[in-house]
Every structure is written in C-alpha cells, then in structure tokens.
C-alpha cells in the first residue's frame, strides 16, 4: 500500500439501526423534507461481518433532495439478537459512541414545535449561544432508538452555501463525547491526518440555561471543549470531539456500534477509489433512486492479511486491488479506533468504509483491520 493511493474523506452517510422504521421516516421525510432514494434487503455479508450471520434485514436510504452527501441509512434487522441501545440511558456528558447528527434549519422554534408533535424531546429547551465567532440557536433533541439530532439555526454571521434548506439540511457534522480531548485529537490529527476546522473552549459554563442541560450549581464546575476535524479542513462530513472537563460521565462505549440500536456508524467514501477513478476522484451520488458510484470494501481474510475488494456500481465483485498488513490494536502507543467492516454492494449503497463511535481511550480493536485503521498503522510507522 502506498500513501499516494490512499485518501481519507469526510463521512457521507450515517447508519441508524432501528426497531421500527416508521417514526424515523416521519422525522426525516415527513418533517425534514427528505426523500427515500432506496429501499431493499441488507446484504447478508454485512450482517455476517457484524457477527450476526443468521440475521436478515431491510434498509432505507434517505437524503435531502438536492444533496448527494450527508445521507442517512435506516436498517431494521431480524434475528440479530442480542441487541441493546447505543449509549443507553445516557446523559450529554457520558463518553463513548456517536452522540448526535447535526442538521441545519431556518426556523428552530418552528422545527422544535413540529418535532415535539412527533414525540421527540430535548433535555433542555432550544438555546441561543455564541460558538466562538458564530452565534447559533441550537437544540439537542432525542427520539426513538436513542437517536439524537442537533438542530442548528445560524444567527450571525449569515450562513452561506445552504440555500437549498427548506426543512432539514443534509447531515453535515457528527459529535462524539470523549474523556481525553488531547488523545482524541492527536489520533485524528497525527495518525489519520485530519485538519482542525474549528475549536472552542470555556473553563466553565456561564450562568443560566445551557445546551447540555447541566443544572445550576454544577455548571460552574464543568467546562466545555469542542474540536471539529475533517481530512480536508471542511465542515462537511466532519467529526466533532466534545469533552466536559470536571464532569464524571459514564463510559458508554461498550456496545457503541452495529448491530445495536441507534447511531451505529458513520460511513466514509472508499479511500482508494480516487486512484481508481482517475483525476476526477470518487464518483459522487447523483439523481434520484440511482446508484452511488463505485462501492468498496476491505474485509479480513485468512492468513493475517487483509485483502481490499471493490465492487462496481451494479454490485459485482471486482478484482482485488489492495493488500495491507494486519493491525492488532495499537497505533503509535494508542489503542486503535474502533472500525467496522461494511460490505453493502447493493446498487444504491454508499462506498462502505465505516467508523463506529467508540471512545479511543476506552475501546481497542482486535483482529485484522481495514482501510481507516490500516492507514493509521502505516502513518504511525513512518
């Protein structure tokens, strides 16, 4: 493997494992103004990779009508027990797992009223606050399967590049709560090569209401640190690391991935696809109900090696292309970030390299790793 052929991009899809697709369709399609782009059967090889070889499932791919990124894939599984909720009974300061998905809205008060009518509730009311040089109105709202959205309305300066918003924008960012911010940022920056998009920190929450519903009498002893990262320094498909110094939250990373219910994974474009696609890079998702370009998958094989396999847009298995060495859980003295194999070569499936939301310091990866973890190993050895 050479670094010239490997390029990590921001995530373009969030995978939600659900008990019942209907309330989620009501949220994204009915409330958010999105559209259904694909409905079909979950590939059995994906379920086998998730440790549920006898399970079956259906999936629904949802997207903003004008966008090819920031989409959501619902999966409803049968025969996948045992399953539990990711970040079960959590508070905003508990660490581990994917905490939320971020979408932009134009009128937060109106959206909050409509979301409550769908039985979605927040831990605190919507709040206007200063995020560095930005002023935003924001609401953390939770629905079925412990699904949490951050609905964000820009107040100042004027938001640009989102003229397509009617109800919900595409998913543009996702937050993860960590205990050790320095360690988390070092992994993304030093190992994976992500760039810092924005950072913000205060030693204590100011008096009055706050986004995280930390109560008065306690909030002045708890700080807030946010760092947004992306491979190319964009706030699109970016990862936001959040820490609350002074809070002693629980570690919820034990079951923070598929096939458990909730926000199970973020999927990134195939990091090798740009080399195979020529100068134009990875073919983007286009049109309604169409395929999403070249599909890619790296899955473990026998012999301690990992063989990269890619799929064309019709789901046919193509010739193996890349090989990479095994990673056994340590990257430059740090535990490897949890990654999950996702081979979903259905016509409307996104390129399938995925990152689950376990906390780096608390969760190790054992066994052959695939693209993202392999890149980390290669970079760390340089």
Spell out the blueprint of helices and strands.
Elements: E1 13-17, H1 21-31, E2 35-41, H2 44-49, E3 56-63, E4 71-78, E5 100-104, H3 108-117, E6 121-122, E7 127-131, E8 134-142, E9 148-156, E10 173-177, H4 181-191, E11 195-202, E12 224-230, E13 238-243, E14 262-268, H5 273-277, E15 295-300, E16 305-311, E17 322-325, E18 330-331, E19 334-335, E20 339-341, E21 353-355, H6 371-381
Please characterize this protein's 3D structure.
A hairpin with a 7-residue loop joins strand 12 (224-230) and strand 13 (238-243). The two termini are 13 Å apart. By secondary structure, this protein is α+β, with helices and mostly antiparallel strands. Strands 5, 6, 7, 8, 9, 10, 11, 12 and 13 form a 9-stranded mixed β-sheet that branches. It has a 7-stranded mixed β-sheet with strand order 2-3-4-1-14-21-20. The protein is globular and about 50 Å long. Helices cover 14% and strands 31% of the residues. The chain contains 6 helices and 21 strands.
From the structure above, extract its key features:
single chain; 382 residues; alpha+beta; 9-stranded mixed β-sheet; 7-stranded mixed β-sheet; 21 strands; 14% helix; disordered C terminus
What's the Cα radius of gyration? 20 Å
Q: How confident is the prediction overall: mean pLDDT?
A: 76
Judging from the principal axes of the Cα atoms, what is the shape?
Answer: globular
Quaternary class: single chain
Helix coverage percent: 10-25%
Class by alpha and beta content: alpha+beta
Q: Secondary-structure element order, as H and E?
A: EHEHEEEHEEEEEHEEEEHEEEEEEEH
Treating each run of at least 4 consecutive H or I residues as one helix, how many helices? 6
The fraction of residues in strands falls at: 25-35%
**Low-confidence stretches at least 5 residues in length (pLDDT < 50)?**
274-382
